[in-house]
Amino acid sequence: MAKLWFKFQRYFRRKPVRFFTFLALYLTAGSLVFLHSGFVGQPAVSGNQANPVAAGGPAEGAELPFLGDMHLGRGFRDTGEASSIARRYGPWFKGKDGNERAKLGDYGGAWSRALKGRVVREKEEERAKYIGCYLDDTQSRALRGVSFFDYKKMTIFRCQDNCAERGYLYAGLEFGAECYCGHKIQATNVSEAECDMECKGERGSVCGGANRLSVYRLQLAQESARRYGSAVFRGCFRRPDNLSLALPVTAAMLNMSVDKCVDFCTEKEYPLAALAGTACHCGFPTTRFPLHDREDEQLCAQKCSAEEFESCGTPSYFIVYQTQVQDNRCMDRRFLPGKSKQLIALASFPGAGNTWARHLIELATGFYTGSYYFDGSLYNKGFKGERDHWRSGRTICIKTHESGQKEIEAFDAAILLIRNPYKALMAEFNRKYGGHIGFAAHAHWKGKEWPEFVRNYAPWWATHTLDWLKFGKKVLVVHFEDLKQDLFIQLGRMVNLLGVAVREDRLLCVESQKDGNFKRSGLRKLEYDPYTADMQKTISAYIKMVDAALKGRNLTGVPDDYYPR
């Protein structure tokens, strides 16, 4: 036997081509046998299993029970419709009628994965219907609801899902990475060839083009159940002097409710809904109706005719809500048309709200901001100036956390953003261990990372401000807390330093969408105060140092809530 095996080996060693041919034929034959047994061959079953009704099983038309993790085509002897469905979708299907769709099961294998993908695509087609390529204009958007960008992972489904979640009827994709939502299309249809950009996160799929939208109509099961998202209560305000100019769209509603007015203004594509008794007014925040002087809510406390637990305002005092419609008057952004003659820094200690301030500046000025660094995640979320070199001169200002004389003197002017060190340190710690809008885990707060972080970063909070006050040229100090509390005034100061003419309507537009995509939704509340007594003592000394430096330059000192802790 050994001699025969040796001869066999020597033969194939001399003739390798014959060996590989024999191996290929063997594998092919085995595959064919396997496929034949999987789709044609039937396992032996008892009479009771073959006829469950006769054996006391479920009656005809009843829903079949879960039969376990079975391979495609196995366990069914019938031919015809039921057998066909079983082969296509596996053993989990309803038997009430032939039109029922099969449910996805855990099939296993390449064939099953392909089949599962096919069913998922069918479900996506049911969710949204492609209706065409449309012209888009940055000054007058085709879809005027909310929008978001992702220059790395945008997909058609992600855009559709975000728009559907907010109750919009249409979802549009542009530049391969931008998603726009709306309740109606306000643009003309163009050739399909003009939508020619591949989605950044989905190869082989088209996501619009340059100023061209690939538009989908979201297929919602019940039109009456369509939701517009939660409206934001803005307060009680006095009736504007020139009502028709301040709030141009009006409708009488005898059975008034908050939902009815908000839905009406949302359909009309306006961001404000003002309830005035039995009248609903829609419009934008403007200088005629800036929403800055709130009145006592008791002046608006007239019950709605259709909802006794809601206030619907009066003809003289309006209850105002902000709808989910995005105010597009401040959404256009671009690079500077010519190279800037001066470099202006947006300087801050890490965690002091620099990214949020950049978002506000871009909306207020219409120009991109740059960075001393490069953060790919910020670029992918729409900060297009992130990729430019900080000396390019194409951006309105430059983000920097640098301190030290040489780095500071490279700039001709600066906006110095200062934040409460207790909040700034926690925000930066969250960013370091949880990302731009994430949070550090409790293990990081409890472990050695937090004390070491405070020991290294707390002195930097003080020296950063002191260095910019000492070496900076033309420094405008802005406190983060003041910017949050009085955005209109503080952002106006910042824009003036940047040399851009302040447009009040644009600043009012910024106010209505000030949060952006990179503002952390409040610090996660810890079960304990992470600052020990020694930490507080050290940080308080740094606060006093910075306060004295500001007052020594005839500037406002730090806000009162910086200390005591």
From TrEMBL:
Entry keyword set: Repeat
Q: Which InterPro entries match?
A: P-loop_NTPase, Sialate-O-sulfotransferase, WSC_carb-bd
| Database matches in PROSITE patterns | WSC (PS51212)
Alphabetized SUPFAM superfamilies for the sequence: P-loop containing nucleoside triphosphate hydrolases
The WSC domain sits at: 127-219, 230-324
**Family in the record:** Belongs to the WSCD family.
The name on file for this protein is: WSC domain containing 2
Q: What species does this protein belong to?
A: Papio anubis
